[in-house]
Amino acid sequence: MFYRIFYYWNVLSIDIVCGAVSSAWFASYVLNSDLKTEFWILLPVTVWVIYSADHWIDGWKLGDKSANPRHEFYYKNRIFLIVITGLAAFFSFVSGITFLKEQILLATLVIGIFIVIHFLLSYLQVSFFWKECSVSILYTAGVWFGPILYTSKTGWEIWCGLFFLTTLCNSFVNSYMEIEIDKKEDAESILKWISQKTLKKSVIALSGIGTVLNLIWFWKNQWVILPEFFYLSIGYLVPVNILFFESFFQKKQLYRILGEGYFILACIPVVFRKLYPI
Predict the structure, then answer these.
(1) For the chain, which end, N or C, has fewer CB atoms within 10 Å of the first or last residue's CB respectively?
(2) Which of 80, 11, 87, 6 minimizes the C-alpha distance to 45?
Protein backbone atom coordinates (compact mmCIF):
# COMPACT_ATOMS: atom_id res chain seq x y z
CA MET A 1 0.00 0.00 0.00
CA PHE A 2 2.74 2.44 1.00
CA TYR A 3 4.77 1.61 -2.09
CA ARG A 4 1.70 2.21 -4.30
CA ILE A 5 1.08 5.60 -2.71
CA PHE A 6 4.74 6.51 -3.10
CA TYR A 7 4.62 5.41 -6.74
CA TYR A 8 1.87 7.88 -7.64
CA TRP A 9 3.36 10.49 -5.31
CA ASN A 10 6.59 10.21 -7.31
CA VAL A 11 5.45 9.71 -10.92
CA LEU A 12 2.94 12.57 -10.69
CA SER A 13 5.62 14.87 -9.23
CA ILE A 14 3.54 15.59 -6.11
CA ASP A 15 6.73 15.40 -4.05
CA ILE A 16 8.36 18.08 -6.20
CA VAL A 17 5.30 20.33 -6.00
CA CYS A 18 5.18 20.03 -2.20
CA GLY A 19 8.91 20.68 -2.03
CA ALA A 20 8.61 23.81 -4.18
CA VAL A 21 5.78 25.26 -2.08
CA SER A 22 7.55 24.42 1.17
CA SER A 23 10.81 25.93 -0.11
CA ALA A 24 9.01 29.10 -1.24
CA TRP A 25 7.46 29.37 2.23
CA PHE A 26 10.95 29.04 3.72
CA ALA A 27 12.27 31.73 1.35
CA SER A 28 9.39 34.11 2.06
CA TYR A 29 9.88 33.68 5.80
CA VAL A 30 13.64 34.29 5.94
CA LEU A 31 13.18 37.30 3.64
CA ASN A 32 10.04 38.49 5.46
CA SER A 33 8.13 38.72 2.16
CA ASP A 34 4.41 39.38 2.00
CA LEU A 35 3.19 37.18 -0.84
CA LYS A 36 -0.46 37.23 -1.83
CA THR A 37 -2.82 34.25 -1.93
CA GLU A 38 -2.76 34.05 -5.73
CA PHE A 39 0.99 33.36 -5.66
CA TRP A 40 0.50 30.36 -3.36
CA ILE A 41 -2.26 29.00 -5.60
CA LEU A 42 -0.42 29.47 -8.89
CA LEU A 43 3.00 28.24 -7.71
CA PRO A 44 2.05 24.56 -7.16
CA VAL A 45 -0.10 24.48 -10.31
CA THR A 46 2.67 25.96 -12.44
CA VAL A 47 5.35 23.68 -10.99
CA TRP A 48 3.17 20.64 -11.67
CA VAL A 49 2.53 21.77 -15.26
CA ILE A 50 6.26 22.24 -15.92
CA TYR A 51 7.31 18.86 -14.54
CA SER A 52 4.35 17.08 -16.15
CA ALA A 53 5.21 18.62 -19.52
CA ASP A 54 8.80 17.49 -19.11
CA HIS A 55 7.77 13.90 -18.29
CA TRP A 56 5.19 13.85 -21.08
CA ILE A 57 7.73 15.04 -23.69
CA ASP A 58 10.26 12.42 -22.58
CA GLY A 59 7.60 9.71 -22.46
CA TRP A 60 6.31 10.63 -25.92
CA LYS A 61 9.84 10.69 -27.35
CA LEU A 62 10.80 7.30 -25.90
CA GLY A 63 7.46 5.50 -26.20
CA ASP A 64 7.56 1.87 -25.04
CA LYS A 65 11.33 2.12 -24.55
CA SER A 66 10.95 4.25 -21.41
CA ALA A 67 13.04 2.94 -18.53
CA ASN A 68 12.16 5.76 -16.15
CA PRO A 69 8.89 5.00 -14.28
CA ARG A 70 7.74 8.63 -14.63
CA HIS A 71 8.24 8.65 -18.40
CA GLU A 72 6.59 5.25 -18.73
CA PHE A 73 3.58 6.36 -16.69
CA TYR A 74 3.11 9.53 -18.73
CA TYR A 75 3.37 7.61 -22.00
CA LYS A 76 0.80 4.99 -20.96
CA ASN A 77 -1.62 7.67 -19.74
CA ARG A 78 -0.63 10.33 -22.27
CA ILE A 79 -4.12 11.28 -23.51
CA PHE A 80 -5.61 11.83 -20.06
CA LEU A 81 -2.51 13.55 -18.69
CA ILE A 82 -2.04 15.90 -21.66
CA VAL A 83 -5.65 17.07 -21.23
CA ILE A 84 -5.20 17.64 -17.48
CA THR A 85 -1.84 19.33 -17.99
CA GLY A 86 -3.29 21.54 -20.73
CA LEU A 87 -6.22 22.61 -18.55
CA ALA A 88 -3.89 23.32 -15.62
CA ALA A 89 -1.59 25.34 -17.90
CA PHE A 90 -4.55 27.34 -19.23
CA PHE A 91 -5.76 28.04 -15.68
CA SER A 92 -2.27 29.10 -14.61
CA PHE A 93 -1.79 31.37 -17.64
CA VAL A 94 -5.17 33.13 -17.42
CA SER A 95 -5.03 33.48 -13.63
CA GLY A 96 -1.48 34.82 -13.79
CA ILE A 97 -2.40 37.53 -16.29
CA THR A 98 -5.55 38.39 -14.34
CA PHE A 99 -4.33 38.41 -10.75
CA LEU A 100 -0.55 38.78 -10.59
CA LYS A 101 1.03 42.21 -10.36
CA GLU A 102 3.07 43.41 -13.32
CA GLN A 103 6.43 42.98 -11.58
CA ILE A 104 5.94 39.36 -10.60
CA LEU A 105 4.17 38.55 -13.89
CA LEU A 106 7.13 39.85 -15.89
CA ALA A 107 9.56 37.78 -13.80
CA THR A 108 7.36 34.72 -14.35
CA LEU A 109 7.38 35.24 -18.11
CA VAL A 110 11.18 35.59 -18.16
CA ILE A 111 11.60 32.35 -16.19
CA GLY A 112 9.04 30.73 -18.50
CA ILE A 113 11.12 31.64 -21.55
CA PHE A 114 14.20 30.02 -20.01
CA ILE A 115 12.16 26.91 -19.16
CA VAL A 116 11.11 26.60 -22.82
CA ILE A 117 14.77 26.95 -23.84
CA HIS A 118 15.64 24.25 -21.29
CA PHE A 119 13.04 21.91 -22.81
CA LEU A 120 14.36 22.51 -26.33
CA LEU A 121 18.00 21.95 -25.40
CA SER A 122 17.10 18.83 -23.42
CA TYR A 123 14.96 17.43 -26.25
CA LEU A 124 17.60 18.15 -28.90
CA GLN A 125 20.35 16.80 -26.58
CA VAL A 126 22.68 19.71 -27.28
CA SER A 127 26.23 18.69 -26.37
CA PHE A 128 27.11 21.72 -24.21
CA PHE A 129 23.85 21.53 -22.24
CA TRP A 130 24.15 20.26 -18.65
CA LYS A 131 20.58 19.49 -17.64
CA GLU A 132 21.40 19.22 -13.94
CA CYS A 133 22.73 22.78 -13.72
CA SER A 134 19.81 24.18 -15.70
CA VAL A 135 17.23 22.39 -13.54
CA SER A 136 18.89 23.65 -10.34
CA ILE A 137 19.00 27.25 -11.56
CA LEU A 138 15.39 27.23 -12.78
CA TYR A 139 14.08 25.50 -9.64
CA THR A 140 15.85 28.00 -7.39
CA ALA A 141 14.66 30.93 -9.52
CA GLY A 142 11.09 29.66 -9.51
CA VAL A 143 11.04 29.25 -5.74
CA TRP A 144 12.89 32.44 -4.79
CA PHE A 145 11.88 35.09 -7.34
CA GLY A 146 8.59 35.91 -5.57
CA PRO A 147 10.06 36.31 -2.08
CA ILE A 148 12.99 38.33 -3.49
CA LEU A 149 10.71 40.74 -5.35
CA TYR A 150 8.66 41.38 -2.23
CA THR A 151 11.40 41.81 0.36
CA SER A 152 13.16 44.86 1.71
CA LYS A 153 15.73 42.80 3.60
CA THR A 154 19.36 42.60 2.55
CA GLY A 155 21.38 39.39 2.32
CA TRP A 156 18.91 37.55 0.09
CA GLU A 157 21.80 36.68 -2.22
CA ILE A 158 23.41 34.63 0.57
CA TRP A 159 20.21 32.75 1.39
CA CYS A 160 19.48 32.08 -2.26
CA GLY A 161 23.05 30.95 -2.94
CA LEU A 162 23.07 28.54 0.01
CA PHE A 163 19.77 27.07 -1.15
CA PHE A 164 20.97 26.78 -4.74
CA LEU A 165 23.93 24.64 -3.65
CA THR A 166 21.53 22.16 -2.02
CA THR A 167 19.49 21.90 -5.24
CA LEU A 168 22.63 21.42 -7.34
CA CYS A 169 23.94 18.66 -5.07
CA ASN A 170 20.56 16.93 -5.16
CA SER A 171 20.36 17.16 -8.95
CA PHE A 172 23.86 15.72 -9.37
CA VAL A 173 23.06 12.86 -6.97
CA ASN A 174 19.91 11.97 -8.93
CA SER A 175 21.96 11.72 -12.13
CA TYR A 176 24.60 9.67 -10.32
CA MET A 177 22.03 7.22 -8.98
CA GLU A 178 20.07 7.00 -12.24
CA ILE A 179 22.99 6.49 -14.60
CA GLU A 180 21.68 3.13 -15.84
CA ILE A 181 18.22 4.54 -16.57
CA ASP A 182 19.73 7.51 -18.42
CA LYS A 183 21.91 5.17 -20.47
CA LYS A 184 18.92 3.05 -21.50
CA GLU A 185 16.98 6.15 -22.53
CA ASP A 186 20.02 7.89 -24.00
CA ALA A 187 19.04 10.86 -21.84
CA GLU A 188 21.11 14.01 -21.63
CA SER A 189 23.23 13.84 -18.47
CA ILE A 190 26.37 15.34 -17.04
CA LEU A 191 27.71 11.78 -16.88
CA LYS A 192 28.08 11.81 -20.65
CA TRP A 193 30.92 14.27 -20.13
CA ILE A 194 32.47 13.37 -16.79
CA SER A 195 32.93 10.10 -14.91
CA GLN A 196 30.87 8.95 -11.94
CA LYS A 197 33.96 9.28 -9.77
CA THR A 198 34.43 12.91 -10.80
CA LEU A 199 30.75 13.67 -10.22
CA LYS A 200 30.94 12.09 -6.77
CA LYS A 201 33.95 14.24 -5.89
CA SER A 202 32.11 17.30 -7.24
CA VAL A 203 29.12 16.67 -4.98
CA ILE A 204 31.38 16.23 -1.96
CA ALA A 205 33.25 19.44 -2.86
CA LEU A 206 30.03 21.43 -3.37
CA SER A 207 28.62 20.10 -0.10
CA GLY A 208 31.85 21.10 1.65
CA ILE A 209 31.72 24.60 0.17
CA GLY A 210 28.08 24.95 1.16
CA THR A 211 28.80 23.77 4.71
CA VAL A 212 31.65 26.26 5.13
CA LEU A 213 29.57 29.16 3.76
CA ASN A 214 26.66 28.11 5.95
CA LEU A 215 28.92 28.10 9.03
CA ILE A 216 30.26 31.57 8.16
CA TRP A 217 26.72 32.89 7.70
CA PHE A 218 25.70 31.31 11.02
CA TRP A 219 28.73 32.81 12.78
CA LYS A 220 27.83 36.24 11.41
CA ASN A 221 24.20 36.00 12.53
CA GLN A 222 24.77 33.91 15.67
CA TRP A 223 21.77 32.06 17.15
CA VAL A 224 19.25 34.13 15.24
CA ILE A 225 19.30 31.75 12.25
CA LEU A 226 19.81 28.46 14.12
CA PRO A 227 16.76 26.60 12.62
CA GLU A 228 17.66 27.73 9.10
CA PHE A 229 21.29 26.77 9.67
CA PHE A 230 20.33 23.23 10.67
CA TYR A 231 17.97 22.87 7.71
CA LEU A 232 20.60 23.96 5.17
CA SER A 233 23.21 21.75 6.86
CA ILE A 234 20.99 18.73 6.24
CA GLY A 235 20.85 19.75 2.58
CA TYR A 236 24.63 19.32 2.33
CA LEU A 237 24.80 16.15 4.43
CA VAL A 238 22.06 14.16 2.68
CA PRO A 239 23.66 14.05 -0.82
CA VAL A 240 27.04 13.02 0.57
CA ASN A 241 25.53 10.24 2.69
CA ILE A 242 23.52 8.94 -0.28
CA LEU A 243 26.74 8.64 -2.29
CA PHE A 244 28.65 6.96 0.54
CA PHE A 245 25.86 4.39 1.02
CA GLU A 246 24.58 4.27 -2.56
CA SER A 247 23.75 0.55 -2.59
CA PHE A 248 21.41 1.01 0.39
CA PHE A 249 19.69 4.14 -0.93
CA GLN A 250 19.28 2.64 -4.41
CA LYS A 251 16.71 0.20 -2.98
CA LYS A 252 13.17 1.27 -3.87
CA GLN A 253 14.53 4.70 -4.84
CA LEU A 254 15.20 5.71 -1.24
CA TYR A 255 17.51 8.42 -2.55
CA ARG A 256 14.43 10.01 -4.16
CA ILE A 257 12.53 9.96 -0.88
CA LEU A 258 15.40 11.69 0.88
CA GLY A 259 16.30 14.01 -1.96
CA GLU A 260 12.82 15.35 -2.68
CA GLY A 261 11.80 14.99 0.96
CA TYR A 262 14.53 17.42 1.99
CA PHE A 263 12.82 20.29 0.15
CA ILE A 264 9.47 19.42 1.74
CA LEU A 265 11.19 19.74 5.14
CA ALA A 266 11.87 23.41 4.37
CA CYS A 267 8.63 24.10 6.23
CA ILE A 268 10.11 22.89 9.53
CA PRO A 269 12.24 26.00 10.29
CA VAL A 270 9.19 28.16 9.51
CA VAL A 271 6.89 26.15 11.78
CA PHE A 272 9.55 26.20 14.51
CA ARG A 273 9.80 30.00 14.22
CA LYS A 274 6.05 30.39 14.51
CA LEU A 275 5.90 28.13 17.56
CA TYR A 276 9.01 29.54 19.22
CA PRO A 277 9.60 33.10 17.94
CA ILE A 278 13.06 34.50 18.68
Answers:
(1) N
(2) 87
Question: Model pTM?
Answer: 0.93
- Assign 13 to helix, strand or coil: coil
End-to-end CA distance of the chain: 41
Distance of CA 128 to the CA centre of its chain: 22
As a 3-state breakdown, the chain gives helix, strand, coil percent values, each rounded to 5, of: 85, 0, 15
State the Cα–Cα distance between residues 240 and 242, nearest whole angstrom.
Answer: 5
Count how many Cα atoms sit within 13 Å of the Cα of residue 20 in the half-sphere of its side chain.
Answer: 28
- Within 10 angstroms of residue 278's Cβ, the number of other Cβ atoms is 9
What is the mean pLDDT of each successive set of 10 residues along the chain, which is 278 residues long?
80 95 97 93 96 88 80 90 95 92 91 92 77 94 95 93 98 93 80 92 98 97 92 97 92 84 96 85
Contact (Cβ atoms closer than 8 angstroms) between residue 150 and residue 34: yes
Please give the pLDDT value at position 68. 83
pLDDT of residue 45: 97
35 and 28 Cβ atoms separated by less than 8 Å: yes
257 phi and psi angles, rounded to 5 deg: -60, -45
